[in-house]
Amino acid sequence: MFKRLFITATLLLAPSLAHADWYEASSKHFVVYSEENPEKLKAYTEKLERFDQTLRFLTGTPDKPLSPMMRVHVFVVANVGEIQRLYGGSGPAGFFDARATGPVAFVPRDDGGNSLNAQTILQHEYGHSFMFSSWPSVVFPKWFVEGFAEFVGTAFYRGGDDTLVIGKAPEYRAYGISRTAQMPAERLLQLDPKDKEMDTQTLYGRGWLLTHYSVLGGHAKELGAYIQALNEGKSVEEANKAFGSLGQLDAKLNAYGARGALPTIAVPAGKVQVGEVTMRRLSAGEAATMKARIYSTRGVNEERAKMVVEWARQAAAPYANDPGAQNELAEAEFDAKNYVAAEAAADRALAADPNSIHALLYKGMAQQAIAKDAKVTDAARWKAIRSWFIKANKLDPTYPQPLVLFYQSYEAAGQPVPKMAQDGLVGAYTYAPFDDGLRFEVGKVLLEQGNIPGAKIAFEKIAYGPHQSGENVSLKVLEALDKDGKEAALKVIADAEAKAKKAEEDAKNKKKAG
Fold this sequence. Notes:
alpha+beta, six-stranded mixed β-sheet
């Protein structure tokens, strides 16, 4: 009965074989996919690129070489309803995920016109990614991480001349901005203010206010001294002295926030160079599989994987020679744990495009999953599996994922990880310092290698990051490291990994029993 209902629901939700035209707009930092009018899509992408260039102009941040795979891939879907289906329930008007496989964002064409809209969310989250990429070794307190993102997140284009205006007050944080009692400066300026869920609005609101006060209110010198002191290893109390009396700071912030109008930064279009935005109409196979691709890129659980692979099979069937369609099918089959089918689809993608990095990785990943399930120990077999990751790395040495997969292959094989693979993982981290999972693994490797300062830098950003959930293992690692040294810190990690593995096994056993 359930199977029949599932198949019916899948067919109802499946993408029609008759599909609209999809376009790709490609710039230096963004790749945007949409059914939007090509001219509008190009203009939208130019504005995203101008936002990036304006952040670099204002902060004096150089524009370093970037792997094409590490550009932000933005998927524009029909409306907020589709965004929430992607998100997995009631959620934001759009969302962003910065990860080592490449940052992605999902936004609607129609967001309903709310003040906390998809564009604001995208700019806020891109602000995070920009901060962690530009200053990967600097520890920032939560209030400034969120305050900076809010500060740039409300940027808007002034009508008529395309001037980008930064610093507008976030109306959706009005409640939190004025709540001194819930987040006084003495608590706000802590690296870990222990904000409860009820304090989130206040952390973001007061963080924005202190950022604005510092950057546009004439107190940038105090902000710089505060952050420098934190990163020199001085106590929070010592660093806080940069702002003077914290009681007086609260009063000054309240007075600043109560002003009738606050200053903003207006950056005319001619101040920054956007660069070329190229347009491409997607192939019929790419367009047919786009719905499946969007859900695969979002990430799927076991049930969704079953649904998406049906979409991908149906949509890709007429396009055996289309690398885009077969790449999506390979990913969907892999997510559904159909590893032989995933490898076959990757082979078809490679036959059409031998330099497809995505196909090379999924061929290697599928072979690795098959070998791991079969408990293969043959060294030659594992060497052949790793060759796919090596080929991908040679095509794009600055793309982190081949390096990550090469490192992980040794654990999958149950083999000791050589220093070459460890160093490759650290290299991946330099290209994607915003990925907390990768950062944690690198912190562990650096501890094992005895690089204590490097390990601390890796763990500190996670420990004091703004989006902590559950147990803060990174903070416990730092505490153990300071108190009892390297071995104690590694034990914290080992205990956490054992706990996570047991929870995973218990969940599997519960599912089998059910």
